[in-house]
Amino acid sequence: MSIQVSNLVHPFICLSGMYPIDIFSEKNRIIAITGNNGSGKTSFFKLLLKELQPKRGKVIVNGEISFLGTKNGLKPQIILRKQLPYFSTTDTPFPWPQFLNIPYQELSAGQQRLVALWLILQSTKPIILLDEPFMHLDDNARHLACDWLNSVLAFEKTIILSHHNLDELGKINNLQIIDLNCY
Q1: pLDDT tens profile 34-75
Q2: What are the sequence ranges of the domains in the chain?
Q3: How far is the CA of 80 from the CAs of 84, 86, 129, 169, in angstroms?
Q4: What is the CA radius of gyration of the chain?
Q5: Residues 6 or more apart from 100 whose CB is under 8 A from it?
Q6: How far is the C-alpha of 53 from the C-alpha of 56, rounded, in Å?
């Protein structure tokens, strides 16, 4: 499993026109794509997911991908107990049994994001893409999420995430940062 991006240029990725993007990632690594709004973080994910094509360069993804976008992907009106079998592919117990009989929409935005992040990190797929995974999370929840990310690395995963604030990524191990800011 690997991701190789070489000489990438795309008009939606701010920095790429001046400095083409090159990435080679193997298992047990977390890559953080950082940048201001509009710098191309989500467009970069769309290139990895083959929803966009590069203007120049290559994007090669070798392995199956699990993706968590800015929408969490769970049905708002359905209780979590009924949704978990569609997302969780492991026997790891769900960490919040008190949420199991509650419709997803009744959780706070931070709780919803934590549930979605926990579920995606249970995936057996070797590559995990996380677009703004810490959205709506307070400091304690963000620290918990960083601990989860570090523990997932032991399962030989490649994780690419986007985020705005580098200071909030300090607890993540094996981190490579790619800053797309160009202004």
Answers
A1: 888 888 889 889 989 999 898 888 888 888 999 999 898 889
A2: 2-74+124-179
A3: 6, 10, 22, 29
A4: 17
A5: 79, 80, 81, 84, 94
A6: 9
CB contact set of 91 (below 8 Å; sequence gap of 6+): none
H-helix segments, 67-163 = 80-87, 109-121, 139-152
How many residues does this entry show for the chain? 183
Residues 183, 36: contact at Cβ < 8 Å?
Answer: yes
For residues 25 and 124, give the distance between their C-alpha atoms in angstroms, rounded to a whole number. Answer: 18
DSSP code for 44? H
Q: What is the identity of the amino acid at 116?
A: A
Q: State the pTM of this model.
A: 0.88
Q: Which residues pair with 5 in a beta bridge?
A: 23, 59
Task: Answer yes or no: are the C-beta atoms of 48 and 23 closer than 8 Å.
Answer: no
What are the pLDDT digits (tens) for 134-176?
999 999 999 999 999 998 887 888 899 998 877 788 788 888 8
Q: Where are the beta strands (DSSP E) in the chain?
A: 2-9, 21-25, 29-34, 56-62, 65-68, 127-130, 158-163, 175-179
CATH of domain 2-74+124-179: 3.40.50.300
